[in-house]
Specification:
The chain is an alpha/beta fold. Helices cover about 50% and strands about 15% of the residues. It has a 5-stranded parallel β-sheet, sandwiched between helices. Strand 1, helix 1 and strand 2 form a beta-alpha-beta unit. The longest helix has 16 residues. It is globular and about 40 Å long. About 40% of the residues are buried.
Length: about 150
């Protein structure tokens, strides 16, 4: 499985630690930035989304100061469903109920917590329950009607 990861300058150090911890287990595609020089998170959110849409990666991880900016930017892009998560329970339900293809983390997330969150997200499958399919379909209708 190919997993993309991005950050802004604030999330750079956590991004680098996540890559070191996960690259032995998964194919991690680092989409930037390459340093902690000040940058704008929407640029990297768009890179991550483009790679999901073009099927170069299956799932995405985004990191910024709070995770909120990345979440907002990613959710503006059709067919990208990003959940800002802080724990494994949220990561699991983001995939199980919402079929999220991206998660966002705050740069203050401890590395061990981040690894557990990401593992839960990757290893959870969408439930395919009718009620969740119906709700996701409603979201897709909102996307196409705006």
């Amino acid at each position: 499985m190919n997993i993309g990861i991005v950050s802004d300058h604030r999330g750079f150090n956590l991004k680098e630690e996540i890559i070191k911890n996960l690259e032995k287990k998964y194919t991690i595609i680092d989409l930037g930035p390459s340093s902690n020089t000040s940058t704008d998170y929407p640029i990297y959110a768009k890179k991550l989304a483009d790679n999901i849409i073009n099927k170069k990666i299956e799932l995405g991880i985004a990191i910024c100061s709070t995770g909120t900016g990345m979440t907002i930017a990613l959710n503006k892009i059709k067919n990208i469903y990003c959940a800002k998560v802080s724990n494994t329970h949220e990561a699991k339900l983001a995939k199980l109920h919402n079929n999220a293809n991206t998660i966002a983390l705050a740069e203050t997330t401890p590395i061990d917590v981040a690894i557990n969150i990401i593992g839960e997200f990757i290893n959870t499958n969408f439930s395919n329950e009718e009620k969740h399919i119906r709700r996701i379909t409603q979201i897709k209708e909102i996307e196409t009607n705006d």
